[in-house]
Write a structure and sequence with these properties.
The protein is α+β, with helices and mostly antiparallel strands and about 675 residues long. It is built from 25 helices and 20 strands. A five-stranded mixed beta sheet has the order 2-11-10-3-9. β4 and β5 (about 125-135) form a beta hairpin. The N and C termini lie far apart (about 75 Å). Bound molecules: nicotinamide-adenine-dinucleotide and zinc ion.
Length: about 675
């Protein structure tokens, strides 16, 4: 036997065993990342040596198995796995292949990848008929009685559900229930479960449904399969399933390009830890079901979907102390100071603890042995405590009551996770942070000025707020550390040039809490000048589309502070753009106010992007899919027939590019 052949055999053997540990015993011995690395290695060897291919190889099969404890059911539609990637490059390669293989424009649905056990539910006449595990993909265990104990699984449906269909999802065990379950086990002298995923999967395979009922499981749905379904895209299918009564998480979005996909990935890589259940990545799917059908499946997974997995590696170490950091908005972040530990190739000494709730939820205490995880390049996080090692004399953590930087008493508004230091104008890290935000790339984008220099300028007493930047003289900055004549000139020029930056970005740069880029855009378009915005009441603000109570309150509060008003007056006097320019103003109307548009197909005179801007500039709204609320479908060439049919069905007015341009000119 050649060494390659031997290597392949060993890998297959090992992977079969790991699959068994994971799916059948629910007791994995290696991390998912390690598993995927081994699988990829095998994949590579098999691709290089097609003569050694074997249809029973772990690369060719969905990993699970059926058990003897339940009736075996053959799936009407095979249950596949997902191709996965751990890098943006892989994802981009996938997108390129998709674009090449697909007819017309491709949109993507981005969903979270819930980490639990896959399940297939069949409904007939609006009632749950049966529930089957994925098993080996071809057949699975019938566990209907266990599934019926999950409260979020509807037993009867509402609305216009099809007569018969299958819906797939993931059974998960939310963190809170998991922690509770483990606390009970520890109390009873039992070994705590390793992680929510395997516990969820194990719970489904319990023989006694009343035992399953004690597990606080949840079922999140993501895919509807059947004939003559009342939708033509993945995104619509999610909306429909929600209407019928299924629990379909709201986080999913429709992205018209990979840029949107990328933003979703970046956001959830960080924020997924705020979700009540575990996720291990994002699933990106070609949205159009017709395109999905054309793309089809490989032996193991659909070609039209890709899982982007967040990399996580875990280590155990000691929590030595908790300190508190103050952000630019005054938000307090608790930081865990750890006994240094090697993780994902770096030494980790600190980890984020998010907020007071998180500390309480995980019951994290100084002196504990804690599990630390690192996903990609993001700061590590504490994900749990090894309760077996807890010192009997330890006490629950008391959260900070005062700002560590300025001693001001912290406040926490109702319904908010974060504590804040309210001393916005006197608290040093808030002062520096606000100016750093002001000059950042997406805000004023001041060339020649970086975050460190800002900190230095504040420290030297040269600036106290962002308006002071415009008063800076070359002679003042020259004596600063590492500041040469040329860089001083660049800095001053950069600041002067920022006076050209458009109003919406200036508004974002001001750093009003909750006013991010998109909200700033909306507010700028609606109010047109900073003065109008400053005068706006809470009521006026919430009447603006997509502006909620929290944002409105924050805006009103910002302009109530005299110091903020003064700063804005000074910015005005320096010539910073605090109103929409004349040219831009000319293009803005409210001609389309109250109308919702869907754009489809290819256009002759304007690009889709321009079309979208025209609609928004004229007060209209653009959405991705047609519903009863859609007023107009702007139809270009090569528009999907399904969209047309849908529009005709719900009575949306279908207009051409020229019709539309007529409307706005
Ligand atoms: N550690 C181990 O020993 C070990 C062993 C075997 C498998 N594993 C892990 O399991 C993975 C393979 O398992 P898999 O085949 O179930 O693949 P997977 O879990 O990576 O992806 C496929 C599954 O994702 C689920 N999913 C969650 N959210 C979804 C959504 N929004 N849309 C569609 N599907 C969604 C579905 O249940 C689907 O079956 C490996 O990548 C590995 O990480 C680990
Ligand atoms: Zn403070």
């Amino acid at each position: 036997m050649s060494t390659t052949e031997q290597q392949i055999n060993e890998l297959r053997l090992a992977l079969h065993q790991h699959n068994y540990n994971y799916y059948t015993l629910d007791k994995p011995e290696i991390s998912d990342y390690e598993f995927d690395q081994l699988l990829e290695k095998l994949q590579e060897l098999e691709t290089a040596h097609p003569e050694l291919m074997d249809e029973n190889s772990p690369t060719q099969r969905v990993g699970g198995a059926i058990t003897k404890n339940f009736p075996t059911i053959v799936h009407e539609n095979r249950m596949y796995s997902l191709a996965n990637s751990y890098s943006k490059e892989d994802l981009e390669d996938w997108e390129k292949r998709i674009e090449k293989l697909s007819d017309g424009e491709v949109e993507y649905t981005c969903e979270l990848k819930y980490d639990g056990a896959s399940i297939s539910l069949t409904y007939e006449n609006g009632e749950l008929l049966r529930a089957v595990t994925r098993g080996d993909g071809n057949q699975g265990d019938e566990i209907t009685n266990n599934i019926k104990t999950i409260k979020s699984v509807p037993l009867k449906l509402k609305g216009d559900y099809p007569q018969k269909f299958e819906i797939r999802g993931e059974v998960v065990l939310p963190y809170e229930g998991f922690a509770q379950l483990n606390a009970e086990r520890v109390e009873n002298g039992e070994e705590p479960y390793a992680n929510p995923r395997n516990t969820a999967s194990g719970s489904l395979k319990l023989q006694d449904s009343s035992e399953t009922a004690k597990r606080p499981l949840d079922c999140l749905l993501y895919s509807v399969i059947g004939e003559d379904l009342p939708f033509t895209s993945q995104f619509e299918s999610l909306q429909k399933a929600r209407e019928w009564g299924f629990k379909v998480p709201q986080e999913a979005i429709l992205a018209s390009s990979m840029q949107g996909v990328d933003e979703f990935l970046q956001y959830w890589d960080i924020h997924r830890h705020e979700l009540p259940y575990e996720t291990d990545g994002v699933v990106i799917k070609v949205n159009n079901l017709r395109q999905q059908e054309e793309l089809g499946f490989t032996s193991k997974a659909p070609r039209w979907a890709m899982a982007y997995k967040f990399k996580t590696e875990q280590e155990e170490t000691i929590l030595e102390s908790i300190t508190y950091q103050v952000g630019r908005t005054g938000a307090i972040t608790p930081v865990a100071n750890l006994k240094p530990v090697q993780l994902a190739g770096t030494t980790v000494k600190r980890a984020s603890l998010h907020n007071a709730d998180q500390i309480e939820k995980l019951d994290i205490r100084v002196g504990d042995a804690v599990y630390v995880e690192k996903g990609g390049e993001i700061i590590p996080k504490i994900v749990g405590v090894n309760f077996n090692k807890r010192d009997a004399s330890s006490n629950p953590t008391q959260y900070a009551t005062n700002c560590p930087e300025c001693e001001t008493e912290l406040v926490r508004q109702e319904g908010e996770a974060q504590h804040y230091c309210p001393n916005a104008t006197g608290c040093p890290p808030q002062i520096v942070g606000r100016i750093q935000h002001f000059i950042s790339r997406k805000a004023m984008d001041i060339e020649g000025l970086g975050g460190e220099t800002v900190a230095l300028l504040v420290k030297e007493g040269l600036i106290e707020n962002y308006a002071d930047l415009y008063d800076l003289k070359k002679e003042e900055v020259l004596p600063l550390e590492r500041m040469a004549e040329k860089s001083a000139i660049n800095l001053i020029n950069g600041i002067q040039q920022s006076k050209e930056v458009v109003f919406e970005r200036v508004l974002f740069a001001l750093g009003i809490r909750y006013v991010g880029e998109t909200v700033a855009k909306k507010l700028a378009k609606y109010f047109k000048t900073i003065d109008a915005l400053a005068e706006a009441s809470q009521e006026t603000l919430v009447n603006v589309e997509e502006i909620g109570e929290k944002i409105a309150e924050s805006v009103v509060h910002f302009f109530e502070v005299e110091e903020n008003r003064n700063t804005i007056e000074r910015l005005k006097s320096f010539g910073v753009q605090l109103a929409i320019s004349e040219e831009e103003l000319e293009g803005l109307t409210d001609k389309l106010q109250g109308n919702t548009f869907v754009i489809s197909g290819v256009f002759q005179k304007v690009s889709r992007k321009e079309l979208k801007k025209l609609i928004e500039d004229n007060g209209g709204k653009v959405t991705g899919s047609i519903s009863a609320k859609t007023n107009y479908l702007v139809a270009g060439e090569n528009m999907g027939p399904s969209k047309l049919a849908k529009a005709e069905k719900v009575g949306t007015q279908i207009i051409s590019e020229d019709d539309f341009l007529e409307m706005v000119h």
